[in-house]
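G., the chain you wanted modeled:
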Amino acid sequence: MKEFFVDIFKYHHHYNQELADLLIENKDKISERTVPLFSHCMNAHQIWNSRITGADPYTVHQLHTLTKCKEIDSDNYAITLKILEEFNLNTIIDYQTSKGDAFSNTIQEILFHVANHFTHHKGQIISDLRQSGIEPLITDYIFYKR
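Predicted structure as tokens:
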């Protein structure tokens, strides 16, 4: 299962980097919500990593430049790979949401959530790009594997 997650996060990292480059190239054309949405994706990944590792988390809607998003994505990817090396996927993590509600989930559940979260918001960003007249990337997993 760990190999699967390594592959999934490698895929997300690959397209996050390409998407950041495309957004930087077209920064004058992208919609107002694109940078906050992309920042949110980076923040969420960092927050979930920090819940596992005990690091200080970002806030959910912290805004970053696109260049900073690329850096955060690389950091998040490296930390997730380290989590996959050092932790058992069945380890239960107790955490609090940004609203203070307490929950417990396994690392496997958390990482699956992070991967799904990226997919959901990437779809929104792709839609925003189309509406802005920008040719979006094809980010389907199967295209990545070809």
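The chain has a mean pLDDT of 96.

Shout if anything looks off.
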